[in-house]
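DM between two lab members

TW: hey, do you still have the TetR family transcriptional regulator entry open?
JB: yeah, one sec
JB: this one, 190 aa:
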Amino acid sequence: MPRIETFNREQVLQNAMQVFWERGYNATSMQDLVDATRLNRSSIYNSFGGKMELYQASLNKYLEDTQSQFAPILNSDKNPLDKIRSIFESFLSEIYHDSRGCMSMNCKSEMSSNEDLRKWLEITQEQTLTMFQQLIQEGQNQGDINKNQSCRVYAWHVFNSFQGFRMTGILEKQTGVLKSIIDNSLSILK
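TW: and the structure you got?
JB:
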């Protein structure tokens, strides 16, 4: 008979995600996870399978949280170019108050040689590219974004700019600098 979980799985994932995000996979010990989740080792293994599986679940939690941050912007009445700008701007508060950067990008830097994680990273990258591509295509169709390049080429540019913006924000906290990065990154689309 399987054991019934007597803990709040969502809270455990949130706590584990914070530790992995702060330290990375390799620098996070099982004891760090025990301390953060308040679960014993056997509960972590029984419920998640191990450290790697908990890391993957934490990455999925991070992705869900990020996508929920995008949803109100994507569902707004703004034009597509303003939606893209709003996506960048929605991370300003995080950049000002947090120097951990993007957990997904941190994973790329640390763990891209792990085949399972590499596949996850490729899938999530494609999801973000597709989001930007759809916005750009819509903007091109409405005349708000130029057609000098294909929507896919522009999506790669915006995606790369977005990642660079998030990475720059680890050290740079000046509003003027960060907003000029957004302006310059998106000026190619006008």
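TW: got it. The chain is about 75% helix and 0% strand. The chain has two domains: 1-62, 76-190.
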